[in-house]
Design brief:
It contains 15 helices and 22 strands. The chain is 34% helix and 26% strand. The chain has 536 residues and is α/β, with parallel strands linked by helices.
Length: 536
């Protein structure tokens, strides 16, 4: 064989190997992800999603080239979508489309992709540009749209849950029952409703109404307006295999009337929860680890508003969360507003959340005015320590109405002939605060409260595999999350020393060194000039 023939055969074999690798790259590929928890590599749940898809799913990512050239996040999203296609064994087809270049703007907007405006600088001129970054998922004759997609950390959860909903032809439903008079979902829990609508169908449940069988999980917020007639459908829904998240406190705070607080004498919802094994006490928990509240104080002829620590707004840190339960496995943090402690009496109860060791209780009298902090110290010495504020109940549970009674109300009829008296498949979460998911979160920037609520509802709906995806990128990013007081003070002192002394000294030292070097160079050049003159 001649040398030329050998080279031709070698080149042909090389081209053939490269072609085979390229053809199989959609199935066999390798990707290195160095982020914590492999945040940008899809999980096993998503990799095996093809087994749940009978026919092809098409994912179209409408993304503007002008945005792709400026935001690395869009490429990360594309990488994740390509992984779906690679692992799907042909069941998922991914398309990347610039709607403006492909003349598909009208089509994208009709499908629900929302245009966004960004500032761009081109040829030294600043202007606003309309861009798109949304995903449309199509299956058979149906489709779902993710109107705006920009965070790679949340893409997998949204994609996998949406594909499942499309293929199964249904979406999980969260029923919301409000137990406080005068409250409504839009005005009081608008942020929560918006968050939940990304993963669930959110449906308002009227008091006393039988819980529809298609409700996947029930959320009960507040309790003073709920009597036994209202609670009977909730109890029977739970006894019939439903799951419930109760957000209920024992002390009512009226923010509309000068921040007054009281413990109602009759709250049937507390009796119901106590019968289940999670007694919400009619007390308030205060904590050294807390959020700040705006306080107005007179200063001469003017009134000054300052942010001051408020022990009634309790901040739950990492050590106060159960790391074994999927809800709190990667705890993002939780802020509670005037919470009540929970006494656990059931063997099948699991403590999810506790306050810090520097927390205490207010009992019987409940001063909450932030302008009178001295009154907060009552009962501190005798009640100091951790207090339970979140509980999960699973397994066997006896009905609150196991004695057979069916509450009645004049003018309303019920179809129940006898109550279901027990269940062995209960799933209940009790949080000793109804305000943690309210619009109060905007004052403390506690958006992680919404994540906690969504995680709890996902777990209650038995989607634990989706919950693992949801919490993969969750981290407590608060700079104040260091709990040990001595360590926190030491770190603060070190940070102050670095910023006040070390950094300025480094700048000064750099300036001195640079000045000395320039002076040496100038001196050297002058000396060289003198030597040349002497030589001449």
């Amino acid at each position: 064989m001649t040398r030329r023939a050998y080279e031709i055969i070698t080149a042909a074999l090389t081209i053939g190997i490269v072609a085979l690798v390229a053809l199989n790259s959609a199935v066999f590929f390798f990707r290195l992800d160095l982020t914590e928890n492999n945040a940008f590599t899809i999980s096993e749940v998503s990799r095996n999603l093809f087994s749940e898809i009978p026919q092809e799913v098409t994912i179209t990512y409408y993304v503007s080239d002008r945005l792709r050239n400026r935001a690395v996040e869009t490429q990360q999203i594309i990488d994740i979508l390509n992984e779906y296609a690679a692992y799907s064994r042909g069941r998922i087809n991914v398309r990347i489309v610039d709607p403006q270049q492909a003349e598909a703007v009208e089509r994208a907007e009709q499908l629900g992709v929302v245009p966004q405006q960004i500032q761009v600088i081109e040829e030294d001129q600043q202007s606003l540009a309309v861009v798109y970054t949304g995903v449309v998922i199509e299956y058979l004759d149906d489709y779902e749209t993710l109107p705006v997609v920009f965070d790679p950390g949340t893409v997998e959860y949204r994609l996998t849950s949406t594909i499942r909903d499309l293929v199964q032809g249904e979406q999980d439903v969260v029923g919301v029952l409000l137990g406080k008079e005068g409250e409504n979902l839009e005005n009081n829990y608008g942020f929560l409703a918006n968050q939940l609508s990304q993963s669930f169908e959110v449906r308002r449940i009227r008091r006393g109404e039988e819980i529809p069988p298609d409700v996947t999980v029930l959320l009960v917020i507040g309790g003073p307006g709920l009597d036994e007639f209202d609670l009977f459908p909730v109890d029977q829904y739970l006894m019939s295999g439903g799951s419930v998240l109760f957000a209920v406190e024992g002390v009512m705070v009226d923010v509309q009337r000068g921040l007054s607080a009281s413990a109602p004498e009759d709250m049937p919802v507390l009796d119901l929860l106590a019968s289940y094994g999670a007694r919400v006490e009619q007390e308030l928990v205060l904590d050294t680890f807390n959020r700040r509240i705006p306080v107005r104080r007179p200063s001469g002829q003017v009134t000054v508003q300052t942010l001051e620590p408020y022990p009634h707004w309790v901040s739950i840190r990492g050590s106060g969360a159960d790391r074994e339960n999927p809800i709190t496995a990667r705890f993002p943090g939780l802020d509670l507003y005037w919470p009540s402690p929970i006494t656990v009496t059931a063997d099948n109860a699991e403590v999810l959340l506790e306050t810090s060791p520097e927390s205490w209780l207010l009992q019987e009298q409940f001063p909450i005015d932030p302008g009178r902090p001295v009154a907060f110290e009552r009962n501190r010495s005798e009640t100091l320590g951790r207090h339970v504020v979140g509980v999960a109940l699973t397994g066997e549970l006896e009905s609150y109405f196991s004695d057979g009674r069916i509450p009645t109300r004049e003018g309303e009829e019920r179809e129940w002939s006898s109550p279901v008296t027990s269940t062995d498949q209960a799933r209940v979460v009790v949080i000793g605060d109804s305000d943690f998911a309210s619009n109060l979160i905007q004052y403390t920037e506690s958006t992680y409260n919404l994540d906690f609520a969504a995680n709890a509802l996902t777990w209650l709906s038995n989607d634990e595999d989706l919950l693992q995806i949801r919490t993969r990128t969750t981290r407590d990013m608060r700079l104040s999350a260091i709990e040990e007081p001595g360590l926190r003070r030491s770190i603060v002192r070190v940070a102050e020393a670095i910023n006040i002394y070390v950094m300025p000294l480094l700048v000064i030292a750099y300036g001195v060194v640079r000045f000395m070097r320039r002076r040496e160079r100038a001196h050297g050049s002058h000396a060289g000039g003198r030597n040349e003159s002497e030589a001449e």
